Amino acid sequence: MWLLSTDRGELHWFPSLEKARLEGYAILSHVWDENEQTFQETQALSKTCSRFFLNPLWFSSPKVREACKLAQRCGYKWLWDDTCCIDKTSSSDLSEAINSMFSYYAHAEVCYAYLKDVSSSFRLDLDESALRNSAWFKRGWTLQELIAPQLVIFLSVDWHVICTKASHATLFERITRVPRSVLRMEEDVRNMSIACRMSWAAVRETTRPEDEAYCLMGIFDIHMPTLYGEGRNAFRRLQEEIMKRSIDTTLFAWGFVVHDFGRCDTSNGRANQESGLFALSPREFLISGKIAFARDALRLLHDTFAQSDPVSQLHP
């Protein structure tokens, strides 16, 4: 795991997440711009500055520089930023980072959510629309970055504090449909049904179709190889992996509305045979947010059949 030193903006290698946790680190969540500072640029900048005894942070991108300065002021020696702490030219490094990213955010001491489209004059007590319309709430990757960390601090374009995730959990529930109990860490995200979790991503976008699946792996505690170029087959693979690890049948509760008395209507008009049991994208779970999986009822049903079936009693 690579981390930036907040005093110089230089990359340092930590052999494990546990080593990084012992040191303590802040983490940055943001929507990418066209010209983000890369891993290679960060390394090259450090090498060049070392020859002239200069601080590389002075010449880093404004976003990296301001994030490091903020983290340092708050007492953190280390910062993780996905744009320059992942060597994206290495497929193995990229795959490892994507599979570990939820853990990176979960174990950070603080997550700074930088909203580049919310002005410094914005006042939360007067107008919520700027916050609601921020691109940060519309991206696929930022969903896990909202859920995983215990402390999320939202920042305006000039790096002023807007609020925290916990202090305005009710507002963020309205914006994202993620229950405030999950946002406040009062309830484990794994206790929410698969259909419910999928619905949170239904209106979010990713630049590449594969990322529709990859950005959800941590939310479902799934680890699988990343294969850019496979398109939306990645989302099918994600569902297959979920099916292998979970008995939650709401994985298949997509594309229909459940009415009273068990009646169902197909809502999207798509033929089921296009993907069989699996949805084509998270969008098909848009109306599935209220569907729960009754684990206790399933256990009760199993126990009832076991007690009434002499064969089951002989072979537990």
TrEMBL record:
Record's protein name: HET-domain-containing protein
One matching Pfam family: DUF8212
Domain named DUF8212: residues: 233-292
Domain Heterokaryon incompatibility: 25-121
